[in-house]
């Protein structure tokens, strides 16, 4: 090849090599930036989770050390079926004594279990709750764990909601929390040890069409939990009494049996009672207070009310169309 043509070829190769190196350097810079952002987000998420855990436990990082399950006594409302029955079985499985307050008799698999005590109780009646509470304290002792689990629902538009059912659902899903806590919390405060678990719902965050009553009661239960947690810290100085709240999505229980098919047709995957009971019992066994959104990948809904109005409306419209199939 003549010398005159060799020099430009070499220059072209050098230019091409420099160009490739430049692209590689730019690519590495982008990768480095992305990695730094991911590390930053991961760190922020970790710090956020730690702070949230501490905030829910009077700014303690470690779990309480005073729990010994065979010595503990739990009260579970609505413990004869559904999620409540699953929680009862898991608590008793840790050799804990469990008092079930329900209008339904115990299921056969729990009858005869020496750790499970049944008290027929209408939790909408303060007199019935007081009578059952006295019996629990007399038969077993002072409970250290209260799980307000009982709940009812009946999908119905606002204009068709009977007044008697409206009062009933607020009594069961919401007002009973006050009645039960007034019975069992004083001793927890006295010994500065206890755990109150409120079973709410994803509906705490999202008002559902044809379920204004249910959504309102669960939002109220959420507010109850938050106020109770604050009162324990500042009014009663009882930082050893834990509070937790669970927000399950729709669960396949007798509660939703009549409209379960409509939910699934609308694209909603129903959770199993075992899955939800595992999560709630696991929260108790963690010896920590906190908030559970079940399943965890729906935690983003907890911040729905902080979203722009148009985004909130879109979410409610999507859920509303599903509700029309119920």
How would you explain this protein's 3D organization?
The protein is α/β, with parallel strands linked by helices and about 325 residues long. It has a single domain (about 65-325), classed as Rossmann fold, CATH 3.40.50. The protein has eight helices and seven strands; from the N terminus they run H-E-H-E-E-H-E-H-E-H-E-H-H-E-H. It has helices spanning about 5-55, 80-95, 125-140, 165-190, 210-235, 260-265, 275-285, 310-325, and strands at about 75, 95-100, 115-120, 145-150, 195-200, 240-250, 290-295. A seven-stranded parallel sheet has the order 3-2-1-4-5-6-7, sandwiched between helices. Strand 4 (about 145-150), helix 4 (about 165-190) and strand 5 (about 195-200) form a beta-alpha-beta unit. Helix 2 (about 80-95) packs across helix 7, helix 3 (about 125-140) runs parallel beside helix 4 and helix 4 (about 165-190) packs parallel to helix 5 (about 210-235). The longest helix has about 55 residues, at about 5-55. It is globular. The model has no long low-confidence stretch (mean pLDDT about 85). Its main location: membrane. This is Short-chain dehydrogenase/reductase 3.
């Amino acid at each position: 090849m003549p010398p005159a043509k060799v020099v430009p070829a070499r220059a072209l190769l050098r230019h091409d090599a420099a160009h490739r190196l430049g692209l590689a350097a730019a690519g590495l810079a982008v990768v480095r930036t992305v990695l730094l952002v991911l590390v930053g987000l991961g760190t922020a998420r970790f710090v956020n989770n730690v702070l949230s855990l501490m905030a829910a436990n009077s700014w303690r990082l470690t779990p309480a050390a005073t729990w010994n399950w065979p010595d503990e006594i739990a009260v579970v409302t609505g413990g004869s079926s559904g999620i409540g029955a699953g929680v009862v079985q898991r608590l008793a499985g840790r050799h804990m004594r469990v008092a079930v307050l329900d209008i339904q008799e115990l299921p056969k698999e729990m009858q005869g279990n020496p750790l499970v005590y049944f008290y027929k109780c209408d939790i909408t009646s303060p007199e019935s709750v007081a009578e059952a509470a006295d019996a629990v304290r007399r038969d077993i002792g002072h409970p250290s764990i209260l799980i307000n689990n009982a709940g009812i629902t009946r999908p119905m538009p606002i204009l068709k909601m009977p007044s008697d059912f409206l009062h009933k659902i607020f009594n069961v899903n919401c007002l009973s929390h006050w009645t039960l806590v007034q019975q069992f919390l004083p001793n927890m405060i006295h010994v500065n040890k206890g755990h109150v678990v409120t079973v709410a719902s994803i509906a705490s965050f999202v008002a559902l069409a044809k379920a204004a009553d249910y959504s309102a009661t669960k939002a109220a239960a959420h507010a109850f939990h938050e106020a109770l947690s604050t009162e324990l810290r500042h009014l009663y100085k009882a930082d050893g009494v834990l509070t937790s709240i669970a927000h399950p999505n729709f669960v396949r229980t007798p509660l939703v049996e009549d409209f379960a098919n409509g939910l699934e047709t609308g694209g909603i995957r129903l959770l199993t009672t075992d899955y939800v009971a595992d999560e709630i019992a696991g929260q108790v066994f963690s010896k920590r207070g906190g908030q559970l959104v079940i399943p965890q990948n729906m935690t983003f809904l907890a911040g729905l009310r902080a979203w722009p109005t148009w985004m909130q409306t879109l979410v409610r419209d999507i859920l509303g169309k599903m509700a029309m199939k119920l």
